[in-house]
Amino acid sequence: MQLKSIYIIILCLFHFALNAQQMHQNPRMKRIIDFDQQHYFAQNQKGKWGMCLASGRAVISMNYDTLLSLDILNFNPKDYSMERIHTNYFIGKTGADQTLLNLKGETVLTVNSIMPRMMGDVILVRKGASWGLAKTTGEFLLPAACTEIEWYDDILALKYEGKWKLFHPKQNSLRLEPSYDSVKEVINNTRYNQKESFLLVQEKGTWGLLDKHLKTIIPIEKEALKPLLAIDKYSKKKTQFLVKEAGKWGVLDINNQLILNTEYDAIQTVQWKVNTFEIAEQPLFVVTKNGKKGIVDAAGNIVLPIEYDVINYNETAFDGLFEVKVGTVSKQMQWNGTTTVELVLNP
C-alpha cells in the first residue's frame, strides 16, 4: 500500500509541475504556459483556462477552471522514476465535473473525475462513487459502476457486479480479462532491488496464479493455494505454494511443478521469520500422513522419517530445535541447516 500511495502522489506532482513551466507574455492573457512549442496553455483575465496556438488563436476554448494534459506515464517502481509522454488529450475541469477534450477542442466525455494517466487508449473515470474505463472515443470499455479499484504495478483491478476485472494497459488488445471472485497480490523480494510478483486469483471456488502480464502460470483449478518462500543453497528466496488437490496437500512452484506431491493430510511450515508482506520464509515442512508426522525440506528431501506421533518446536521463533515423540519415548533433534542431529544429554 505504501508503494501505491507513492505512485499516486507522483502522478499528482507531475501535473502540478505544469505551473512551473516556462511562461510567455501576452497582454490579452493572464498566464501562458508552453505545452509543445506549438500549443500553449492559456489563462484569460477572468481566470479561465484553455489552449491556443502561438498566433493566439484558441484551439480549446477558455472555459475551464483548470486544464491539464492527459499523458502516458510509465512508472518505474525500482527507483520511483516517471517517464511522461504527451498525448493529444486534455482534462478540463468546470465546477464538480471534468471533461475529456482532444486537441481540436472537441468534448469526448464528461464525468466527475478523470485519472490523469493515459493507459493505451483507455482512461480511468469516476461517476459519483463508482469507477469505470472509457476509451478516448468516448465509448466505455467498462461502465462506471465499479465499486472498488486496486493497482498492482501496471495492472488495474476493478470490482464490477461483485467480480474483479483485470486490465493491463500495455497489452496490444484493449480487453478485460475474465472475472474473478478474489484477487490477491503475492510479492517476493528475492534479493536487493529484485522481486517476483504474481496475482493469486480465485474463481468458482478454485485457485490459480497469474504473472504480471496476466498469463496463467498455475491453472485455476486448485482447491487451495497459499504462498510461502523457500530458500535454496544460494540464499535466493523462491516463491512456492502450499497446494491442495483432492483433499491432500503438497508444495508447488511457480512453474506448476510439484516439490512435494499432494499426498499429505496436513503440511505445517516451519516459520523462521515473517517479512513485511507476511509471507513466511521456510526451508522445512512438518508433514502428516496416515496419522504420522515427519519433516521434509523445500526440495522434497526427507529430513526426519514420517513415523512420529508428535513433533513440537517453537512456532513463533524457530531456533532449529525439534522435540519428537513416538509412543511414550521422546527425544530432541537439532536442525543445523542441512541435516538433523539427535541431541544426547550427558548424565
UniProtKB/TrEMBL annotation:
Residues 1-20 form the signal peptide. It comes from the Bacteria. Keywords: Signal. InterPro entries: WG_beta_rep. The keyword Protein transport does not apply. The keyword Signal applies. Pfam families: WG_beta_rep. This is WG repeat-containing protein. It comes from uncultured Aureispira sp.
